[in-house]
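Subject: Sanity check before I submit

Could someone independently write out the structure tokens for this chain? I want to compare against mine line by line before I put it in a report. The sequence has 91 residues.
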Amino acid sequence: MPDMSSSAALAMTHLVPLAEVDENKVTPGVLGFIVFAVMALAVWGLMKSMSKQMNKVDFKEGADPKAESAAESRAESESGAAPADSKAKQG
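---
Independent answer below. Compare away.
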């Protein structure tokens, strides 16, 4: 571990003269622009991928087989009862 701390200290001593910060002027600088640009490209790529995936989705919902069988059984029971009632009324 001592090697890492000494190398980190050495790296910081090399960066300190490059990072002269004016107390009255603080800007994100080039590093901030690079980070922002990378994030913007990542979002653009994700949105493009999402658009492709959404185009693959079929939004038309198929008929539910359980609902169809329930509707058919209801229709059969109603149609079976309706002729009996109509015959009784006619006769």
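---
OP: Matches mine. For the report I'm noting this point. Residues 18 and 78 are 87 Å apart (CA to CA).
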